């Protein structure tokens, strides 16, 4: 599994050079590993899906990115492009690693819905969605976002504190988010 993940990171790297997606993906991968360790679920689905989930941003002009995600006025059409294109790119990249067709299809389905999907169908999908969001609750993700959205850190902390009630599909995801917000408060807001 380690070899497969390394290969996928190598394949994904050129598609993650926009914004801070490389860093975001590596951090989200760590969260996914921790969630999977404690909650179970198939590593063969979860790990490739989280590594490839944001490759589709490479197909969206960079000047549009800030309209497509964040706490305010999200343009859902632009956001949707990164999911749909991402699933296409992932389909291609997944041919390079030894996985079954069923796994490949499920990974692409998760990528296609990772942001917009409101009703994740499987534990694997829930873990990928939570791991993706958790980056925003880490001190590093928090400072990147507060700056790029131009929001005062105190205010942004409260926005995230409210969002944590809606965003997580596993209790453990929410627990990690609470811990993240505590760290942010200790390290950055005191
Ligand atoms: Fe995404
Ligand atoms: Fe993401």
Structure description:
With 190 residues, the protein is mostly helical. It has one domain (2-188): Orthogonal Bundle (Hypothetical protein af1432). Helix content is 69%, strand content 0%. The protein is built from ten helices and no strands. Helix 2 runs antiparallel to helix 3 and helix 3 (43-52) runs parallel beside helix 7 (123-134). The longest helix has 19 residues, at 21-39. The structure holds fe (ii) ion (FE2) (2 copies). One fe (ii) ion binds at residues 53-54, 82, 114-115. Residues 53-54, 82, 114-115 line the site of one fe (ii) ion.
Here the CATH topology equals: Hypothetical protein af1432
- CATH architecture grouping: Orthogonal Bundle
Which blocks of ≥5 consecutive residues have pLDDT under 50?
none
The unique ligands bound to this protein are: fe (ii) ion
At the first level of CATH, the class is: Mainly Alpha
Can you give the mean pLDDT?
A: 95
Name the CATH superfamily classification: Hypothetical protein af1432
Give me the count of strands: 0
What is the distance, rounded to the nearest whole angstrom, between the alpha carbons of the first and last residues? 41 Å
SSE sequence, one letter per element: HHHHHHHHHH
How many helices does DSSP assign? Answer: 10
Helix content: 55-70%
- Count of discrete domains: 1
């Amino acid at each position: 599994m380690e070899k497969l993940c390394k290969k996928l990171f190598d394949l994904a790297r050129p598609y993650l050079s926009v914004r801070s997606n490389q860093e975001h993906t590596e951090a989200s991968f760590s969260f996914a590993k921790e969630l999977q360790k404690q909650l179970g679920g198939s590593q063969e689905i979860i790990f490739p899906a989280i590594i490839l989930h944001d490759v589709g941003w490479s197909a969206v002009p960079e000047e549009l990115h800030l309209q497509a995600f964040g706490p305010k006025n999200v343009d859902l059409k632009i956001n949707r492009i990164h999911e749909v294109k991402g699933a296409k790119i992932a389909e291609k990249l997944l041919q390079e690693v030894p996985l079954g067709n069923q796994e490949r299809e499920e990974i692409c389905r998760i990528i296609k819905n990772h942001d917009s999907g409101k009703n994740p169908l499987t534990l694997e999908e829930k873990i990928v969605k939570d791991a993706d969001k958790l980056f925003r609750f880490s001190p590093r993700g928090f400072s990147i976002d507060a700056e790029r959205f131009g929001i005062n850190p105190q205010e942004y902390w409260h926005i995230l504190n409210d969002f944590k009630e809606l965003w997580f599909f596993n209790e453990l995801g929410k627990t990690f988010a609470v811990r993240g917000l505590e760290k942010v408060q200790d390290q950055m807001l005191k």
